Amino acid sequence: MSQLKPDPERRFGALLNELSYLLRREFERRLRRRAIALTRAQWRILRRIADREGCTQCELAAVMHLKPTTIGRHIERLEAGGWIGRTRDPRDARAYRLSVRRKAWDTLEQMRLVAEGLREEYFAGLPPARRDGLIDDLLRIQDNLLALDGHKRSITAPLPTEHASFTEVT
Predict the structure, then answer these.
(1) CATH code, residues 34-148
(2) CB-based contacts of 72-78 (< 8 A; 24+ apart in sequence)
(3) How many CA atoms lie within 13 A of 7 on its CB side?
(4) How many angstroms separate the CA atoms of 89 and 83, rounded?
(5) For 25-35, what is each residue's pLDDT tens digit?
(6) So where are the chain's domains?
(7) pLDDT of res. 157
(8) What does pTM read for this prediction?
(9) Quick one: which of 124, 145, 134, 130 has its CA closest to 167?
(10) Lowest-pLDDT range, 46-55, 66-75, 76-85, 157-166?
(11) What is the 3-state secondary structure (H, E, C) of the chain?
């Protein structure tokens, strides 16, 4: 009996990993072209704070699947750079609420435009219904994987309508 070897280009996990790498690389290249000087970690955190204005550092860490101490170091750098603000939580003196400062909104808008342009290019040739279906399927897979570890999807919180944002990378 012969063993069927899966086509290496069709291995789901490897393909997702490669797509993620290519997306991040191209997105970062385009950000550099616009002279946006944030590290990958900084722009990811800044974007997540923009999506969840008023969240705590612990809430942000949970959403991003990172340790609070890791988030804390980046938050300190972003605050020192004038990108975000931290205010004491009136209900919990140990917690800080995070907000995006005015300086960051222009950069976030530039990043949104970069992401939007890139998204149009990588979805070229796929009709909108197939794009939506693909995203729905990936979200279902994400839910399934998180459920394996006893978690529910942490990115389902509604996005604020006051400011346009973009998804992780794009």
Answers:
(1) 1.10.10.10
(2) 74/41, 74/42, 74/45, 75/45, 77/42, 78/42, 78/45, 78/46
(3) 3
(4) 19
(5) 999 999 999 99
(6) 34-148
(7) 41
(8) 0.73
(9) 134
(10) 157-166
(11) CCCCCCCHHHCHHHHHHHHHHHHHHHHHHHHHHCCCCCCHHHHHHHHHHHHCCCCEHHHHHHHHCCCHHHHHHHHHHHHHCCCEEEEEECCEEEEEEEEECHHHHHHHHHHHHHHHHHHHHHCCCCCHHHHHHHHHHHHHHHHHHHHHCCCCCCCCCCCCCCCCCCCCCC
b/e string for 56-95 if b means 16 or more Cβ within 10 A?
A: bbebbbebbebeeeebbebbebbeeeebbbbeeeeeeeeb
The tokens for 108 are 């976030």
Looking up tokens 């070897």 gives: 5
